[in-house]
Design a protein that fits this description.
The structure is a homodimer of 146-residue chains. The first copy, chain A, has 146 residues and is of the alpha+beta class. Chain A has five helices and five strands, in the order H-H-H-H-E-E-E-E-E-H. Chain A folds into two domains: 70 residues, Arc Repressor Mutant, subunit A (Orthogonal Bundle), CATH 1.10.10; 58 residues, Dna Ligase, domain 1. In chain A, the strands form two sheets. In chain A, strands 4-3-5 form a three-stranded mixed β-sheet. In chain A, strands 1-2 form a two-stranded antiparallel ribbon. The complex binds manganese (II) ion (2 copies) and zinc ion (ZN) (2 copies). The structure holds a DNA duplex (30 and 30 nucleotides).
Chain lengths: 146, 146
DNA sequence: GCCTTATCTACAATCAGTGTTGAAGAACAA
DNA sequence: TTGTTCTTCAACACTGATTGTAGATAAGGC
């Protein structure tokens, strides 16, 4: 995702207006590594702008996704997660217990489908997801099993 | 997943009763490669047993998942999909357009997380998903763009 | 300043899935 | 066969994320 300033340019160039709410959401997303849900973005945005509505957050997130500035991920945690890190593809670590999502920063081999194995699918993207327990939830489940 | 007969044994061994509805669901799942949703299982089951309820289908699918005989997959298609093929892990092909899910039958390298890159997660499983267009949807979207 | 678009509030609707109830039916052990 | 226990069914309400609607207000951009 680009900087808030660049995003404002981009929105204008696409005939969208640069409102205070949208800029607030730009700022909230900048550098957010938590893969927030729409609700999480809303909560963070409310700290800067008390009256921003959840509806507006959904709209702006979809605008950003349509422009390819963020990606929306359905990782099975019950809510769509948004990822400002779209520049290089990366695997995700997902906590089975609390739904935490983190980037896995490590080089992974490009997954190539052998010829004839794609069953006629026109494949556009590949995703790798590791599921497990995050450090915090590891702690709490340890206590349960003792 | 085991055969319907073996599943009946397994259910009895676990203190569950072997009802006609459950056996019907066992048969429906046997050899199903489509990764059906609960609703799809229900529709197929209704062909054999008209009065079987969707609730019972959900219950039995969860029973089977609890016993490890099928796996439940949330692949972002809007519905949980069930996979009787649990014996060897495999990637999935998912159609962005119609939600079709197919096994990718090809050997993939075991995904190993480099030391120190797991951010403290206790990783239990890895999933690979390829997204794209299935042959049928490729056809229909071709017609749209001409 | 004018036109257009965005936002807000408030509410209803969707949709997959879960929970509840009580009554009826079936499985299974004895 | 009998009795206990589990399962199913129907019918319904409910959840929770997300989308849709409406009219009124506000603000962006030229
Ligand atoms: Mn990410
Ligand atoms: Mn599969
Ligand atoms: Zn966790
Ligand atoms: Zn398709």
């Amino acid at each position: 995702m680009r900087t808030p300033g660049e995003l404002s340019e981009l929105f204008r160039a696409n005939g969208r207006k640069v409102t205070a709410q949208r800029q607030c959401i730009f700022r909230v997303l900048e550098g957010d590594m938590t893969h927030p849900s729409a609700e999480a973005v809303h909560i963070a945005a409310t700290r800067e702008m008390e009256t921003i509505s959840l509806k507006t957050v959904y709209q702006t997130l979809h605008d950003l996704a349509d422009l390819g500035e963020i990606s929306s991920l359905d990782l099975g945690t019950g809510m769509i997660r948004f990822d400002p890190n779209v520049d290089d593809p990366h695997p995700h670590l997902v906590c089975r217990h609390c739904g935490k999502v983190r980037d896995l920063v490590a080089a992974f081999p490009d997954l190539q489908i052998p010829d004839g194995a794609d069953l006629g699918f026109e494949v556009g993207s590949a995703e790798i997801v590791f599921r497990g327990l995050c450090p915090e939830c590891r702690q709490s489940t340890l206590q349960l099993s003792t």
